[in-house]
Amino acid sequence: MGIIQSMTRKRADAAETQRQGRKEKRNSSTAAFASTNKAASQSPSPQSSEVSSVLSEPQQLDPSKLKIRLTENPKTVDPPEKLKFGQNFTDHMLVVSYDPVSGWSDPEIKPYEPLILDPACSVLHYCTTIFEGMKAYIGPDGKPRLFRPQMNMRRMEGSVARLALPPIDGDAILELIKRFVNIEKRWIPNAPDYSLYLRPTVIGTRPMLGVHASDHCTFFLIASPCGPYFPNGLRPVSLLGVSDHVRAWPGGTGGQKLGLNYAPGFLPQKAAAARGYEQVLWLFGDERRVTEAGAMNLFVVVQREDGAGHDVLTAPLDGTILPGVTRNSCLALAADARFAEDAGLGRLYVKEEAYTMRDLVSWARAGRLSEVFCVGTAAVVCAVNRIGWPEGLKELGEEPADAPPKPAPGEGVTEDGMKCGFDGTDIFVETYEGGLGPVARALRTKILRIQEGRETHEWGVVCE
């Protein structure tokens, strides 16, 4: 285990210890402060002893101390058809802060308002920020629900540890999130494919310059009612394979949900859009290994060579891939023989293994590339019908004459009648009526049924 991984694990363990209520030593400044108070407590002054006993242990994150201050001017909730992702926000926000002397403040739900930050604070200079993406849904019983929120909390704890921010108790945060969702319940759209998007965020707020870990932080939660992430519905999207820019690398931070992982992708995304593609497909290494699509995990469905079933592949969690909640859910469902049988999918063989652009071309040329789709909290499941690889022929060592003619725009079918193929510039994937292939559609349907409370499942957590 590397030094960074070891340090990250230790900080994650600290969060676990915090959840169990055990007392942990803090950073050096806290220890020094406690030592000072201990010395003061040896003084004959009863008042000094009382003060030191109060201040020597920083306060733990305590949901029972939640303060609620509701807005006096509640906003009008827009109808679902007018909602755009991430542009409208609810009346309130949840905030709780940490400093090494006092520990965690009393959490507060208060009217939505700008944050006040010192210009020297860590997040503004060193990008010490992590976030999560979650959704709340209204079930048929009228109760709000979350989808596998414990996974988000464990990932949040790991992200916080990776940036050496003060450990955070995910279970305590989840309890506060549930309280917040109940208060903002009226903002959850009661319509299929609509939800209340939740953005839990932690920022480093150490108010001084210097390349050091932030021993101050603030957790805040904001929420936005939203409809489908892609407004055009289930229409498949196109990807452009990119290898001259890298999203993540071994030993880096691609396996955590850090703010610093996203901004470097904006420029390649704009370049892809200028070339007519909707998302970036991140490729890694000289072998052009397929990793993620935009900010989403990627799956491919490949017919087996003997024709007996399909392989469902996604890149392994090697530290460069974000351990997505939807990714994990799709893997678990696809590996369930009962799910595949009920959906009429035949035999599915789930694989978490590396694959390359050469593999995609080979499968497409053989007519075996059945589906490609992206998954994530925002989009849930989104099909892919075209993957651009402009330098593909060169990297394959082929001449343009070796490639078949380009299919007609939007058809996704090659001239020889195959439903998938490679024309020297693009890999075409079979398209299906309604936008999604059978595996992607079955996964999306199952996940949405659980999220919206139309099916009882342990993954659906009622906010009570």
From TrEMBL:
For bias type Polar residues, the affected ranges are: 28-40
Q: Name one GO cellular component term.
A: mitochondrion
Give the Basic and acidic residues compositional bias ranges: 10-21
Which Pfam families does the record associate with it? Aminotran_4
* Recorded GO MF terms: L-isoleucine-2-oxoglutarate transaminase activity; L-leucine-2-oxoglutarate transaminase activity; L-valine-2-oxoglutarate transaminase activity
Q: What class of enzyme is it?
A: transferase
List the residue ranges of the region (Disordered). Answer: 1-84, 395-415
Q: Which domain of life is it from?
A: Eukaryota
A GO biological process of this protein is: L-valine biosynthetic process
Which InterPro entries does UniProt cross-reference here? Answer: Aminotrans_IV (IPR001544), Aminotrans_IV_CS (IPR018300), Aminotransferase-like (IPR036038), B_amino_transII (IPR005786), BCAT-like_C (IPR043132), BCAT-like_N (IPR043131), BCAT_family (IPR033939)
Catalysed transformations (reactions): L-isoleucine + 2-oxoglutarate = (S)-3-methyl-2-oxopentanoate + L-glutamate; L-leucine + 2-oxoglutarate = 4-methyl-2-oxopentanoate + L-glutamate; L-valine + 2-oxoglutarate = 3-methyl-2-oxobutanoate + L-glutamate
EC numbers on record: 2.6.1.42
Where does this protein have compositionally biased stretches of type Low complexity? 41-60
What cofactor does this protein call for?
pyridoxal 5'-phosphate
**Keywords, sorted A to Z:** Amino-acid biosynthesis, Aminotransferase, Branched-chain amino acid biosynthesis, Pyridoxal phosphate, Transferase
Family the UniProt entry places it in = Belongs to the class-IV pyridoxal-phosphate-dependent aminotransferase family.
Alphabetical list of NCBIfam families matching this protein: ilvE_II, PRK13357.1
Protein name per UniProt: Branched-chain-amino-acid aminotransferase
Which species is the source of this protein?
Coniophora puteana (strain RWD-64-598)
